[in-house]
Amino acid sequence: MTTPTIHPVVLCGGSGTRLWPLSRKTLPKQFAPLIGNKSLLQLTLERLCSLNRDITCVASEDHRFLVREAVDKAGATGRQILEPVARNTAAAMAAAALRADPDDLLLFAPADHHIPDTALFAQTVRSGIDAALAGRIVTFGVAPSFASTAYGYIEAGAPAADGHSHAVVRFVEKPTAAVAESLILHGGYCWNAGIFLARAGILVAALRTHAPDILEACERATAAITADGSFDRLDREAFEACRSDSIDYAVLEKHEAISVVKFNGNWSDVGSWNAVATLHPQDGSGNRLSGNASALRSSDTFIHAPHRRVVALGTRGLIIVDTPDAVLVAGADCAEQVGEVVRMLAAEGQAEATEHRRVVRPWGAYDKLDFGERFQVKRLTVKPGAKLSLQMHHHRAEHWIVVQGTAKATCDGQVTLVRENESIYLPLGAIHRLENPGKTMLEVIEVQTGGYLGEDDIVRFDDTYGRCPSLKARGGDALPLPDAAVAAAAAAASVPVVAAMPVAAPQLAPAP
Question: Please, how many CA atoms are within 13 Å of residue 182, restricted to the half-sphere of its CB?
């Protein structure tokens, strides 16, 4: 008998403030390089590829390029459904189910879980197929290893005839410590992993019964969906009108045909720095060290140091997390209160509360190295074959210095190949574009000078990634390009090039 095809759906929402400063609003924990220089999303995608490489992701519009980058790194394929606003798991799962065939067997998995045993995970998921084909919504529970107050619990009832699943008696929300201990002592309970397997049509029917308003809003949002490459954008007006609720509250706690399959492997939702620490081996003094970390006469200390050397001397029970622009030093017993730090910094107007120094873009990334009055220095990394938008700035000029690879630079219609240790000057108001025509990563140091250096001082005339809203009239018609932009675009498509000047050359044009 042929095993039915499982269609994975990854739920990529969540802000991840509990893992600040590594995780922030612009780079939630599922996208941050956390384990072996891989993000939790990439590890999730790699794990799901053992079931099916065609994977649907449901993600925020703001994180679309982070998702696609993780999909590419994991060797997966599939489309990304983009939410214009966050509306929790019920709406995300409804949108994915409505986009699937009613008979499709969908596996919904959060993007931020760590499950090291891929083979056992796949085996456990497949053991839930019979129950799902029988019309039940299958949830996966984790055998608890301690009385956790951070997870919800599932009480498993009588075993089903399939020999793998159990009927769900009830769901228990995150309990107090005393209740958690009583559940463990009672037996028959498992942690709710938030992973579900069901036929698309069964999930839609359950939503229609228990949360018809959510389903109707998602039906309107998916009916007016717009495609952009691998992205499927839900209709903003319809989706914004949707009620925000979790699938547990909206459906599962009210639905009768629910089964649970137990997973007996290691699992973590990586919900705190203490949870991250347990993913690393400890030394004889209880220290857990990651990256460029060292400890001397210290005990029970966790250090996350992916960049520079961080040394703990004589510490006890600390969490130390180093990033290029912020450092967290916390008592291990305060790991669950890191979100309060983020709220404090946000109230103070500190950018580090929500933004990273390194910003991912569809063409690569940029890192803010230094800034001051009237200047800013960035390190740009451009993927092979990628190019930035054709753009101009009203308030700043730029110098591009190539330190690795070869750049193809367009400036007011003239195309120049800029090689390593060469530079090019882009005057204020010049219409320009940076491209990587090579097969290796391009690295450029960008020096900006001017009276205003904000990211919103960009006028785009042409963009591979559909980011030209400033050129759209209110009626939706594209505004005509200025003559210089037309010339620049035409020049970029041809090959006549001139040589760039070396960095130290006296002919380098002066800044205005």
Answer: 6
